[in-house]
């Protein structure tokens, strides 16, 4: 008996597609030239300008936080559209990690405060991490850092306010056994959240190599 093929549509153009994002839409995406900057967007002045307070070793992202990827991220973050995470993770691995020789030994997703997690019932960074982990074999570590401070939503905050908002927001629950990790977030604007995690990790593990991975950066225009 021949298997029945279930029709699938591209998440962006809604046309029939074998992939979550069809080849035509993928070709139209304005993705960052990761290879040009040696797979580290801190080598790109335009990206580094918006992340001037971030002290991590390496930053990787797919694109600017603009339509259509912004729509996929919004659907993932606020509407539990986990299929969007699948599409974004596959795109990230194919585009941002394609030629990297040295991958981190673990992925640490940005944690939510328990109250926020209770409201949403899921953490979008963990959902992205599960899929990136499955595609790369990099372990996903979700129990090493907790967010004990119920921080204010950062959308309308300035860079200085974001930094103050994230001060002492995280706790390291146990020592790390790794020499190289990547912090994973969905979107980075000023980098205040991931920098707070980075400072915490470096305080306890000064020699730790810390990369920052996200799906999108909010570039200064």
Structure description:
The chain has eight helices and seven strands; from the N terminus they run H-H-E-E-H-H-E-H-H-E-H-E-E-H-E. By secondary structure, it is an alpha/beta fold. The strands form two sheets. Strands 1, 2, 3, 6 and 7 form a five-stranded parallel sheet that branches. The protein has a two-stranded antiparallel ribbon with strand order 4-5.
Radius of gyration: 17 Å
* Low-pLDDT runs: none
Percent helix: 25-40%
Number of DSSP helical runs: 8
N to C succession of SSEs: HHEEHHEHHEHEEHE
**Straight-line N-to-C gap:** 56 Å
Structural class: alpha/beta
DSSP, total strands: 7
Strand content: 5-15%
Largest sheet entry: 5 strands, parallel
Overall mean pLDDT stands at: 90
Shape: globular
Reconstruct the topology from this structure.
Layout lengths: L22 H6 L16 H6 L7 E3 L2 E2 L4 H11 L2 H15 L9 E4 L4 H7 L3 H13 L8 E3 L11 H8 L3 E3 L7 E9 L3 H13 L4 E9 L4
Parallel strand pairs: 1-7, 2-7, 3-6, 6-7
Antiparallel strand pairs: 4-5
Helix pairs in contact: 3-4, 4-6
What would you say about this model in short?
The protein has 221 residues and is an alpha/beta fold.
What are the salient characteristics of this protein?
221 residues; five-stranded parallel sheet
């Amino acid at each position: 008996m021949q298997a029945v093929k279930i029709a699938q549509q591209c998440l962006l153009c809604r046309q029939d597609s074998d992939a979550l994002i069809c080849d035509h839409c993928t070709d139209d995406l304005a993705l960052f030239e990761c290879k040009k900057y040696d797979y580290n967007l801190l080598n790109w002045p335009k990206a580094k300008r918006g992340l001037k307070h971030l002290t991590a070793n390496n930053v990787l992202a797919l694109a600017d936080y603009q339509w259509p990827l912004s729509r996929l991220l919004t659907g993932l973050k606020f509407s539990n559209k986990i299929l969007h995470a699948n599409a974004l993770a596959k795109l990230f691995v194919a585009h941002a990690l394609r030629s990297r020789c040295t991958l981190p030994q673990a992925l640490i997703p940005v944690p939510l405060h328990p109250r926020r997690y209770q409201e949403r019932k899921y953490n979008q960074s963990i959902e992205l991490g599960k899929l990136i982990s499955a595609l790369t074999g990099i372990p996903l570590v979700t129990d090493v850092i907790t967010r004990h401070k119920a921080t204010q939503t950062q959308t309308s905050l300035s860079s200085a306010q974001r930094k103050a908002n994230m001060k002492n927001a995280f706790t390291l629950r146990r020592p790390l056994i790794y020499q190289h990790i990547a912090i994973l977030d969905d979107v980075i604007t000023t980098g205040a959240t991931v920098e707070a995690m980075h400072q915490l990790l470096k305080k306890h593990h000064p020699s730790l190599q810390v990369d920052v991975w996200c799906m999108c950066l909010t570039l200064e225009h």
